[in-house]
């Protein structure tokens, strides 16, 4: 069961927290932490780094694809935003994230 207490060293940087999501402001760099299930039979879940593009997630995903990035799925829409998964050259899971439109 995840801990719901926040260490004193992090309390001033914590922007939001729930059972499965926390946001930490690291001097202007927003770090989001959430639980993640495995995405394949050999995966146990784990960390994934998400990047928010300055422009459109659609345009940036197309740019990554044309540059030869290993894409692992299509852009998906969720109530909390849009994600576009891909892998780095070492095979680590990464994704683009765009917050929901207001």
Automatic annotation (TrEMBL):
InterPro entries: Glyas_Bleomycin-R_OHBP_Dase, Glyas_Fos-R_dOase_dom. Residues 40-94 form the Glyoxalase/fosfomycin resistance/dioxygenase domain. This is Glyoxalase/fosfomycin resistance/dioxygenase domain-containing protein. It comes from Angustibacter aerolatus.
